[in-house]
């Protein structure tokens, strides 16, 4: 039997303990599949005394993950601590510098430092693998980087933050407003310590930027992801969209256009009966579109101990098998800096606005849309009982450029018939 | 730049021409991703004069695929001829014997000779890859063998014959009987030369047997797949199942039980609103369930030039990158001969029977079910206008063992109230 592959595991939270359990439970299965045993030699976490749901007594303990990363008895540095700065970054850099391969679940780190880390690893002949960083247990990095490697990718889309999808589907199913469900999610432990990472779309944006880099051969460019969180999605919009046959999802879309790379992570309407529209709770879905393959849809658990540890260990077994390739599927030095393109791909839009009940109010709004070159597909007026002085107007436009929508929305207030603020949500073809 | 990887392409039908197109169109992209150029040096097909939709002038031509397989200027033998015997088998064996890696789309060949081919390849240090053999463009072999390699797999399921799914969804959507839609499918060119390969479930059974071998570490055992085609699925059952919230699919299920390996490819009812239930036309779907990852669902085109060639070229790029592993994800000599288990996993069943309109007819049927230990979840009686002497009875049972269902169905004719034959279709939890 060949020599074992030795893991140094940094981080003993949910995912780290999941990794320990798999390594212990499936030692024989993994050895058979990997062609050699996979063992943990050392672990790292701040508090050694904390009660954890696994027997760690056989492993050396390092309080400092940088020390772990440099150990001679570690072949692969497994980073499941999280955080884009500080210890995770220092330790990952140290691991590469001392000639270790890296398996990481850290999307934030790669979204910010993926290029420099990949260049450093490739200069050292080391690999960085990050299946667990995107869409939990779904082997989407593998599908995109390897399975679809013969395709010119056209578009990559996904619902990749389970917490946001939990909140949106819970709002819809229970008819509860955002604030109430947000608080529920916090109490269930579904939110990051900084909830804005989830509900602000940042975590999902990190993931999208990694998929885009692989798909289009571009440097990771998280700063150019158009980000809009779910904090402004109202229960009214969820209900009204539903009535019109749509569900609201925090949807990421990356596509290469003639003007450059579009990346957006924003609330979108998608058809209620589409696979994305039907996605409930914490489940993730990624859609990969290539010129030869057409459309591939992958669905699975986006987080949690088992699924995330499964993804980490899939990467570890690839390394044990000797699979080696550049971090983003082609040499990092050859990745180009994509021209960021502000979203210009036309789409239908859902508009909701409250109009004062004045003669000609609707005509004024329609004129603003028409002046911006936007034509109307559907319109509904909803008069609430007891609210005679205003009415809610719902509009679904034909395909319109985002800039034209913004232009029209900018012009409507001057009509004097708008109460409050108009809401516009893109309807994505999926 | 490292030396090119040289392909010998056997078969210039739809898939072969698709491979040629990708190699020619994406030479730069593939070289960037694979780390080396990928070129075709020689091709093989019987008729050189046939008009084909690609420029083949740069390639050596072999009429005999065995000669192609032995050429010194070929590194990888790409077999897209099809057929489990004759030329495909001879040429694949010759390729391995002369030290080539093999990429094949040939499920029939592997379902029958996978074990001996894998052993021969591994003895020679060669790889056989077959992503294109299962579920067309969906990278499911990769997901199962690599991405989920750290999982003890629990169950693998799938709709993996696009022609059958086309026929079933077309029957449902257009309300047409099987024979009419079968003839349509034939005229559209959707059927194999021997249609029984499709509608008899054989092709899909081949695919299931390959997934089961990887999932459970067992030798490919196609002969033990319980096969039932779609030829007996009636438009009546499709309509009545639909009324009760189910769609009928040709569904493969492989699972390891305490009694041994269950493999079946049979028409099943699945909930109409489940991802499998909603699958339309030629699209394939595979469901992979592992102990850590939970459930992963993969959906995509199951056939066609682009998707199948995409899968072939994904395998080629893996080989170019130096990814090497045993054919079924662990050494072929270590695969165990699974004990085949006749399906015994209990499930609810849909039963349809026509009963003579005699007093106590229904009670007699219910007694047969009760005597077999089967309890009834739902029952409906449908009296057709103008047909007063008999009625159609639909029953959905609670979970029952297949043997108990067979026992009850065997007892019902003796009651003297059954007209024709009772239909029983398993309802699979998905």
From TrEMBL, chains A, B:
Any one GO molecular function term: NADP binding
TM stretches of this protein: none
Active site: 207
UniProt keyword list: Amino-acid biosynthesis, Methionine biosynthesis, NADP, Oxidoreductase, Threonine biosynthesis
All residue ranges annotated as the ACT domain in the record: 350-430
GO BP annotations listed: methionine biosynthetic process; threonine biosynthetic process
Any Pfam family hit: Homoserine_dh
Annotated binding of NADPH, by residue: 107
Pathway(s) this gene product operates in, as recorded in its UniProt entry: Amino-acid biosynthesis; L-threonine biosynthesis; L-threonine from L-aspartate: step 3/5; Amino-acid biosynthesis; L-methionine biosynthesis via de novo pathway; L-homoserine from L-aspartate: step 3/3
EC number: 1.1.1.3
PANTHER family tied to this protein: HOMOSERINE DEHYDROGENASE
Protein family per UniProt: Belongs to the homoserine dehydrogenase family.
UniProt name for this protein: Homoserine dehydrogenase
Origin species: Paragemmobacter straminiformis
